[in-house]
Design brief:
The protein has about 280 residues and is an alpha/beta fold. The protein contains nine helices and ten strands. Strands 3-2-1-4-5-6 form a six-stranded mixed β-sheet. The chain has a four-stranded antiparallel β-sheet with strand order 7-8-9-10, sandwiched between helices. Helix 3 packs parallel to helix 4 and helix 5 crosses helix 6. It is globular.
Length: about 280
Amino acid sequence: MISVALTIAGSDSGGGAGVQADLKTFQELGVFGTSALTAITAQNTLGVHAVQPVDAGIVAAQIQAVLADFPVKAIKTGMLFSAEIIETIASELKGYPTIPLVIDPVMIAKGGASLLQNEAVVALRNHLLPVATLITPNIPEAEVLTGQTIRSEGDMEIATNTLLSMGASAVLLKGGHRDDVPYAEDLFMTASGEHFLIRSKRIVTQHTHGTGCTFAAAITAELAKAHSLEEAVVTAKHFIQLAIEDGIEIGHGHGPTNHAAFRKSGQLKTKEVELIERR
């Protein structure tokens, strides 16, 4: 039987991020994707032009409909927009504590538009982080969640421990925003003490729209296939690296990545990703 995953996120009319990116990623990794929309955006590679949140009751109804019928094996959240929507999602997922939950704390669009209301940050900390199997913030998102400045590997470790103290079972802190190193390096840590760094070559391109969504969706897909969290993170890193390397270069701004690149490669892992530390 095919594995099933659920994404709870916003719609990107440009197709590079949000629910559209999640469903493409699920499909590419052999997982059947289901969805619950939290917001509709008028968006393209040049930016977000309008946002309309979905009524929280409809968000709840979508989640209920999917989980009542499909054998969902992993869940991912993306753009959640408001405290009300976050609290609604947390309430709906209480009845499914054994399904792995990946939280991608989407806050800012690639073009700079805010995708999470300020008061929603508190709700995210209080209601979803404590039940997360994994949270996947980039550095700016981690700075907002922790209130800490992150400039170095040491800063990343401090912030990751802070996030773990908020209740998440594991954290993948993405280091692509650091400017003190010539590579992109992500830090993975679990509450039980697992720890590794995963490094990848930086690619000079403006076509990186939806990378965070896609990375987290790839992890979710692998978890849905019953892979371990560590295996899921490593495979997902290869997936997103190839998606950026083999760019499709469409749109006049921050274009999307190539979600088909991993499949086209025969699901071969790229030499540009290296697991450099593990304990």
